[in-house]
Design brief:
single chain; 246 residues; alpha/beta; Spore Coat Polysaccharide Biosynthesis Protein SpsA, Chain A; seven-stranded mixed β-sheet; globular
Amino acid sequence: MKPISAELSVIVPFWNEAPNVVPLAKRIFTALANEPRQIEVIFVDDASTDGTWERMLEAQQLDSRVRAVRHLKHGGQSAALWTGFRASRGGVVATLDGDLQNDPADLPAMFVELAGCDLVCGVRTRRLDSWLRRLSSGVARTARKLALGVDFRDTGCTLRVFKRSVLETLPVFNGFHRFMPILAQNSGAVVKEVPVSHHPRIAGQSKYGVWNRLWRGLYDLVGVRWFGKRQLKLIQTVEHTDPREA
């Protein structure tokens, strides 16, 4: 059977989040129950070892709008998101984490905000994370502001909605998802931040520590600064049309 085209794609990367898969699928469809556009929900399993893939297939059986994609080798969150982007068909794309800390109920309001911009980013105004994660995020924000001259409040929040055209502007590298608002804005996209809910983790284990969240982010910052300095900017042009061809 030929797959239906989708107008809205919701992409969720998973890595060893088996208990959260089916509950998250139900929350997404509940949150988007009044969404008039055709929806596809793309779950990407980043080579989990805990039964996440089986739970994704279960979610697909419960609702045919779920599409399950599996990495045969672990690649990281950026790779999983990019796999989802490539598989998606929607003109509008949404992303969120698979740990139930992002709330799909925030998506409808974010879609409304998208009418006036290209990318809407969630800002976790009341973060229910450990002090270490909050500290590392604060240090990373200060470093981004000093190195790049921009001050997005929460680039670590994966709850985002954006127009498909944004994907055409993004350089792809391991870690790009942390800098997506900055990369999009540098390419001319209009980016807006909005407050979103944040919930404590109730199942599974966090995949982030000091090294892969703080030091890794600072390391990537060097590359993003270099790219920003070397990136070609769009230049306005004027084309002359031969009047004899009018």
